[in-house]
Write a structure and sequence with these properties.
about 300 residues; mainly alpha; 2 domains; three-stranded mixed sheet; two-stranded antiparallel ribbon
């Protein structure tokens, strides 16, 4: 069984450097290297542009992780506003980072004229690596753990052996890196890597979240639910639908056509509907003309 050696790694000039920050920073750096390596090789995005994308999306994601966490813990932070910016104490929510990061990616896609799904595809090969490493910050903080257990790989928190929920997610994210790396090397359609991440990560998060004792909760008319599980269900359903839609679209149209966004698909489908309608109207006009000619005869 494992037990955290403490939150503080070392002190520098009288300032405590936390293990949490070290692990998160290490995860970010290694995730960045994966993205920086793969972007020009598999996604046609230059290294200079990749660097700009990473910096701006990272800023948005870090702010998102904190804003999201503070919103769902507002009862505490409302009474202790000075703690809102105390990042060193922990309190980051990955879903907030993913949401804010994707919003920034969508904005940058328009500015730089790069396909949004192409951007998130390459990012979501590096992101799970950052998650896998960053999760170990929870170990040092003795947080993100589960219910009591007598399993040999339990972690000790306050003298009690509990499920290492952070470890389960860390292992799964390492597996995700391998799967998504392989998939991204030979994408069947643009957006496949991103959507597959949404599905696979959400399945794991839904299952592991049921073990955790520190879940952020969301109030609904029919009861309180773990917000991570609600988000996971929505992500699985939404990403699953888009995955099948884009896969069938690419299979039907082929030719390596890169689909940019769902809006492109809607426009394309709309064009086909208009073309079909125009064709049908033309046939009706021809039919009416023939009937008119027959009547005159």
């Amino acid at each position: 069984m494992m037990e955290s050696p403490g939150r503080v790694a070392f002190s520098l000039f009288g300032v405590d450097v936390m293990w949490y920050g070290i692990m998160v920073a290490l995860g970010i750096i290694l995730g960045f290297l994966v993205i920086y390596y793969r972007a020009p090789r598999y996604h046609g995005i230059t290294r200079d542009r990749t660097f700009s994308l990473v910096i701006l999306i990272l800023i948005a994601a870090l702010l998102g992780t904190r804003i999201y966490y503070v919103i769902f813990e507002w009862e505490y932070y409302g009474a202790n506003p000075h703690e809102i910016f105390n990042f060193r104490a922990g309190g980051l929510a990955i879903h907030g980072g993913l949401i804010f990061g994707c919003l920034m990616a969508a904005l940058l896609a328009r500015i730089y004229k790069i396909k949004f799904l192409n951007i998130v595809d390459v990012f979501f090969v590096g992101i799970p690596l950052g998650q896998a490493i960053g999760r170990w910050g929870n170990f040092f903080n003795s947080e993100a753990h589960g219910t009591p257990t007598d399993l040999p790989w339990a972690v000790i928190v306050d003298g009690v052996p509990v499920h290492p929920a952070f470890l389960y997610e860390s292992i799964w994210c390492f597996i995700l890196v391998y799967i998504l790396w392989r998939v991204d090397n030979n994408r069947k359609f643009v957006g496949q890597t991103f959507l597959l991440y949404c599905i696979l990560y959400s399945i794991e998060r839904f299952l592991v979240e049921s073990l955790r004792t520190d879940s952020l909760m969301v109030q609904m008319p029919w009861g309180d639910f773990r917000q991570a599980q609600v988000i996971s269900i929505l992500a699985i359903a939404g990403a699953g639908f888009l995955y099948l839609f884009l896969y069938r679209w690419e299979k039907k149209h082929g030719g390596g056509r890169a689909i940019n966004t769902v809006a492109d698909d809607v426009r394309a489908i709309g064009s086909e509907v208009v073309a079909i309608s125009a064709g049908a109207e033309e046939e009706l006009n021809v039919s009416d003309e023939e009937k008119h000619e027959e009547a005159e005869e």
